[in-house]
Amino acid sequence: MSDRTLHLAAFAAAGPVSGNHGGWRYPGADLDLLSAGYYRKLGRKLEAARFDLLFIADILAIPTRLENSLDSQLRYGALGALRLEPLSVLSLIAGHTEHLGLAATISTTYFEPYDVARSLATLDHLSGGRAAWNIVTSFQHAEARNFGREDHISHDERYDRADEFLEVACKLWNSWEDGALVRDAAAPLFADPSKVRPIDHRGRWFQVEGPLNVSRPPQGRPVFVQAGASSRGKDFAARWTDVIFVTHASLESAQAFYREMKQRAAAQGRDPDGLKILPGIAPLTGETGEIARAKDALLTDLADAKAGLSTLAYHLDIDLSRFPQDTPLPEIEQPGIHGHYKEVAELTRKHGMSLAQIGKQYAIKTNRDFIGGYKEVADRIEQWFTQSACDGFMIQIPYLFGGLDDFANLVVPELQRRGLFRTDYEGTTLRDRLGLPRP
């Protein structure tokens, strides 16, 4: 095993889209998305392949950003056509796995710190220290209207609220000292009152007395995952985040981001190695390159350009139907998700793609460097990992369960043969496996 350990996380939605908008239409794809068995199978397969964690993405509305209509999302099974609530799904998976980390997407914009701290502490206890929180700041009008607001709050205010949200949540997890839960029936002493304290938080966004009514989690606090790529998002990540999930259109942009974020973490007084950067990729593989490219051709045919454009419109928070479809993506000053905008802007600059072409490309995943025979895919993973572009990858599975089986049965053993990836789990908690200290 090399000095550095490659980390692998799986990105999945409790719905139709993960790494490719045509994946749900692929022959043999499992569409039993509302069954417990589907998610049991997903968790067990990832654990058998020794993945660090499963990350379940979430949004709080069916996007209507393209043409102010639900049609493109629902018709094409795009990003937000169906999303089950992630904590419920992960709680189910926790009962059928022993080692796999469990990351739930929860918004700091529309939830409250006490409820989130309590739910994640519960998941961490019940899973034996495997909970993680993908922290998002919701930005869509459709989401705002589902929570009694006509408009969402501004970009910087969303991060102001998120900073205070994290402060409160951490205070709540720390409102019980380690060892406060005694459970001495003879004394009697169930919990030591001297080790449980209110937090008495009074801030701009939240007033929370505390303490939490769940004892301190096994990990101290859940692992924090975040995907912000704006300047403010990077500041937030450098301060709080354990794992950054971001997408890149090239090795060079990944290397630049990696350098920048490690420097930002150091500037915050953190150990840069305590910030794990996992770019999102959608590998498509097979025994040979020809097999992989045949699968890619079929998936490309099945992915409708309008589905990709609908999801891109959601990510950028702008109705892209109002622009000429045969011209390049226009410059956008305040995109919803900066990382996705940079990714497609880089493609536009490099290849002069029209908006319609970008929609198609977005539907099948913009970075095409991880399609090929299993050794080719392992080569590219090794290149990014050894050339300081990442600490591992967030694997966006093109279709379930065949796409996962191909990666787990072909690429993972190849990475293990090269000494890049674990052959068995180490430690007892997700923090142990990620090499992160317990706070």
TrEMBL record:
Enzyme Commission no: 1.14.14.10
Main enzyme class: oxidoreductase
GO molecular function: nitrilotriacetate monooxygenase activity
Residues where FMN binds: D58, T105, H155, Y159, S230
Cited Gene3D superfamilies: Luciferase-like domain
Highest rank taxon of the organism: Bacteria
Alphabetical keyword list: Flavoprotein, FMN, Monooxygenase, Oxidoreductase
Residue span(s) of domain Luciferase-like: 34-384
Family: Belongs to the NtaA/SnaA/DszA monooxygenase family.
Name of the protein this chain belongs to: Nitrilotriacetate monooxygenase component A
